[in-house]
Write a structure and sequence with these properties.
Layout lengths: L2 H16 L4 E2 L4 H7 L13 H4 L1 H14 L3 E3 L7 H5 L5 H27 L17 E7 L1 H5 L15 H17 L4 E7 L2 H14 L5 E5 L13 H9 L4 E7 L6 H9 L6 E4 L5 E3 L4 E3 L6 H6 L1 H7 L1 E4 L7 H12 L2
Parallel strand pairs: 1-10, 2-3, 3-4, 4-5, 5-6, 6-7, 7-10
Antiparallel strand pairs: 8-9
This protein binds S-methyl-methionine, 2-amino-4-mercapto-butyric acid and zinc ion.
The site of zinc ion has 5 residues, from loops.
Enzyme class: transferase
Cofactor: Zn(2+)
EC number: 2.1.1.10
């Protein structure tokens, strides 16, 4: 393994050791922003909150820490320079929103850790306040997220989906997010092989000096949503020394066990999973079809099996909440 690869692997091993062998990722950020009254019916979706209600983003991060999360994923999933420019913001403003997404999560962590050690009565509630290692993961949503038409769930980018186009699309955003000081970059809801390749090439060219995590999305439990082979996508991620964890996000819980077993065949890196509730998304109405998902209790009942199958970073994606995270934390750590 290269020196950089070893450094990232050591950092992950230390984080997982400090997390009792398995770490809890947070739950749906957009979901919880919406539950707190934010309006996401916009092409920027949750990224809109970076300028309409940044304090709410910080509050939701804090709620997830109090629920037991040890990884906060930033509000930059649908935050792109191109998306902000098309709303009339300048390049400078667009870059500052990206930086803000990381700062808000860092601020929530600092507030939380201060509360853990300030000796107040509130801090004595060990179900909410436990000093522990906490990572800030800067979210990079796929090109399909920017398109705002749900194409992160199809991976169908038409003629624009070339390697060069995708690399150009993500380059500056990735640099700005990395410079804002997160612990990790997390590429979320990756729908196809070409975007996987684009991310890996960018990571190899950019030398960000922080590890990257890859989360693929599947709708059949076998392949990624485009129909490209998950095994091939996960192998491409595994081959990159900058990649420190590989896994699945925003995918129905019923598919996760098989997907973890498949990924384990092609990587020895830590496996992350943060499924959605299993509901389907209507990208035109920007609403979830509620009757199609599972309950928190059913979601949490899977957690131990996912861990036994090889997942060591476990959380929730869209339509999961602090209650889901409390359940995951209890299942893994008893609190
Ligand atoms: C992960 S999906 C629910 C995010 C929202 C989507 N890109 C949209 O703009 O409708
Ligand atoms: N990380 C995003 C969703 C990715 S599908 C969020 O939680 O809102
Ligand atoms: Zn999601």
């Amino acid at each position: 393994m290269s020196q950089q690869g070893e450094y990232h692997a050591d950092m992950m091993a230390e984080f997982l050791r400090g997390s009792g062998g398995a770490a809890v990722i947070d739950g749906g950020l957009a979901t919880e922003l919406e539950a707190n009254g934010a309006d996401l019916k916009d092409a920027l979706w949750s990224a809109r909150c970076l300028f309409t209600c940044p304090d709410l983003i910080r509050k939701v991060h804090l709620d997830y820490l109090e629920a037991g999360a040890s990884v906060l994923i930033t509000g930059s999933y649908q935050a792109t320079i191109q998306g902000f420019l098309s709303k009339g913001f300048s390049q400078e403003e667009s870059e500052s929103f990206l930086r803000r997404s990381v700062e808000l999560a860092c601020e929530a962590r600092a507030i939380y850790l201060e509360k853990c050690s300030n000796g107040s009565d509130e801090a004595k509630d060990v179900t909410k306040y436990r000093k522990r290692p906490i990572l800030i993961a800067a979210s990079v949503g796929s090109y399909g997220a920017y398109l705002a038409d749900g194409s992160e769930y199809s991976g169908d980018y038409g003629n624009e989906g070339t390697l060069e186009f995708l690399k150009n699309f993500h380059l500056r955003r990735l640099q700005v997010l990395a410079e804002a000081g997160p612990d990790v970059i997390v590429f979320e809801t990756i729908p196809n092989k070409i975007e996987t390749q684009a991310y890996v090439e960018l990571l190899e060219e950019c030398k960000l000096r922080i590890p990257a995590w890859f989360g693929f999305t599947s709708k059949d439990g076998v392949n990624v949503v485009s129909g490209d082979s998950l095994i091939e996508c996960a192998s491409i991620a595994d081959s990159c020394k900058e990649v420190a964890a590989v896994g699945i996000n925003c995918t129905p819980p019923r598919f996760i066990h098989e997907l973890v077993l498949s990924i384990r065949k092609v990587t020895s890196k830590p496996i992350l999973i943060y499924p959605n509730s299993g509901e389907s998304y209507d990208p035109i109405r920007k609403e979830w079809v509620e009757c199609s998902g599972i309950s928190n209790e059913d979601f949490v009942s899977y957690v131990k099996k996912w861990h036994e199958a090889g997942a060591s970073l476990i959380g929730g994606c869209c339509r999961t909440s602090p209650d889901t995270i409390r359940g995951i934390s209890k299942a893994l750590h008893g609190v």
